[in-house]
Amino acid sequence: MSARITHPNLSSQDIEARAYQLMALNNILHSSTLLVLPTAMGKTPIELMAIADKMHQFPNKKVIFVAPTNPLLAQHYKEAKSFLNIPDESIIMINGGINWKKRQEMAKNAKLILATPQVIRNDVNRGSLSLENCCLLVIDEAHHASGKHAMGQVADLYLKHSKEGLLLGATASPGSTDRAIINLINRLGSSNVFSMQKNNPLIKPYVSELKSNIITLELPKKLEDLAAPLKIWLDEMVEKLRKVGVYLHKGVITTSGLNDSMKRANFLIERKSQHGWNSMKLIVDSIRVLQLINLITTQGIISTRNYIRRTMTQFESGEKKLSRLVNKKEFINLKEEISNMQEIHNKMDKVVELVKEQIDLDNQSRIIVFASLRDSVKNITITLNGINGINAVPFIGQSSRKGDEGMSQKQQISTLDDFREGKLNVLVATSVGEEGLDIPSADRVIFYEPVASEIRTIQRRGRTGRHRSGYVFVLVSKDTKDEGIRFAANAKENRMHRILNKIKNQRRLSFDSINSKNQLDDFKIILNNDEISVDSFIISEKKRLKKENEKEKIKVEETKNQEIKLNVLNNNLSISQRLRPKGQSGLEEFENED
Predict the structure, then answer these.
(1) DSSP characters for 474-490?
(2) Distance (Å, whole) CA 546 – CA 203
(3) Residue pair 179/18 in contact by the 8 Å Cβ criterion
(4) Cα 265 to Cα 503: distance, rounded to the nearest angstrom
(5) What is the pLDDT along the chain (594 residues), one digit of tens a residue?
(6) Nearest residue to 450 (alpha-carbon basis) of 347, 367, 380, 528
(7) How remote is the C-alpha of 183 from its chain's centroid?
(8) What secondary structure does DSSP assign to 488-548, as a single string?
(9) Full DSSP string of 77-136
């Protein structure tokens, strides 16, 4: 059913009408809401429709839109100018690179202000920006609004200073524990939650096919040999921690287990116990050795070598506590053995294979490779650029450290534009590329390693399949940290959906806009050149999609029944009958006749 949405403050371009988006929008306009939808399911159009309506309802008030990164903000700025039927000069984007006095002047006549949360927080605190005259605050990628993050501080300021303004927080991944999700709801002042999963009949027709593939790789023997002495060293240190009752976790030694040990060591230190100080030294050294092991086994030679070089530089610059690490024979031997070694981790070969495979299938393809470490990003980029037909670029954050320059906002935006336009066909990104960025032609996403956070997993996976079918490949090194992380991320994501449903049921909040007061009078649906109300459209869509869903269920059931019948038939046939060409008689049939 082809339909579009019209509204006085929306531009004349076609905006596809989707029932679930309009249901969410009605909730948002009714009360402050946490919006949770899968990636690529249209959170941005919902945000912009909410902005359009609030501007129409309160023409003398402002709307503020915050996003965590400048590239994402630039994307929203471009979309706002395209979607909203208001003068271009009424929409401004401000960042920390603009002097605050100039920002103050720019904001005076603006109707929509897009900014990073740090800018809004700083301007409000210094008094150069007021939130009293704001009718709506939109917080994109709202899962950041926790603790001391600027996004949470902006929410605090808005709830304190705005006069009856609404707050919309939007995310695909609000957290994986009751506490995290409830804290987020409370921090945003949300009296309502609207969430749907991809298997919901109202969303399902719009979901692009996303095929996820886990590729488990055997660790090269040489890497196992390099890690073996470090593992013995780590086991010896942790055994000492176990003897004094500081390390209590069973099984594989993990960073979380060592972090828990640190709490117990601090407890002993507070009580002036010598065991506390000795344990703390062992824990710090254990964390560094475990990091070395994980680098060798999950990232490879080059990332490990760069880590060792940085450690040596820190030691030579005066960090004498590193002497316990750098003077150990295991560390010295590793440093010498890999000093001139080429990369031998098979993840690199697999990345090359997957990228070449996609380019061979379609030379217009765009591919994103995610890696957690900048060292790995640079190594992957260099390797891929040595292959004919591949033009790869790194995409990293703005922060810089000695010998490792970040990307400026201008460089980030330019890189994304070149990628969208096809000037570049492979983007190799750290976590800065995970959130919200709409890269329509990403045909394939490759995880150089799995990530433990369900938020980051959902965000990374959402970079493909946004507008058409896409493929996700996750590289997992067998018997390494990768395997534990992979299972942890899946468990957290499933738990997130269970908790959201539980919270909604417990609070008995209104999630269906049809059952709440209609706030969408200014929105109309154009269907087959006829104008109909939003309510009529949602009711008709529910009926239509219910019928389609029932037809699909019947079709799936019929296919299953056919497969069962075929399996039963095959099981009843002899091996010779199953292998015989159709229509050909067998000796057993002549035997039966006799």
Answers:
(1) EEEETTSHHHHHHHHHH
(2) 12
(3) no
(4) 37
(5) 578 899 999 986 667 889 999 999 998 998 999 999 887 788 999 999 999 999 999 999 999 999 988 888 888 999 999 999 999 899 999 988 899 999 999 999 999 999 999 999 999 999 999 999 999 999 999 999 999 999 999 999 999 999 889 999 999 888 878 889 999 999 999 988 898 888 888 888 877 655 678 899 999 999 999 999 999 999 999 999 999 999 999 888 999 899 999 999 999 999 888 888 999 999 999 999 999 999 999 999 999 999 999 999 999 998 989 999 999 999 999 999 999 999 999 999 999 999 999 999 988 888 999 998 999 999 999 999 999 889 999 988 777 776 678 888 788 888 888 888 889 999 998 876 555 455 545 788 899 998 765 444 555 554 444 444 567 899 999 999 988 887 776 677 778 878 888 887 776 544 444 445 678 989 999 888 888 999 889 998 888 888 887 777 777 676 766 766 666 655 555 545 544 554 555 544 444 443
(6) 347
(7) 20
(8) HHHHHHHHHHHHHHHHHHHHT----GGGS----TT-EEEETTEEEEHHHHHHHHHHHHHHH
(9) HHHHHHHB-S-GGGEEEE-TTS-HHHHHHHHHS-SEEEE-HHHHHHHHHHTSS-STTEEE
Both structure tokens of 208:
């692009």
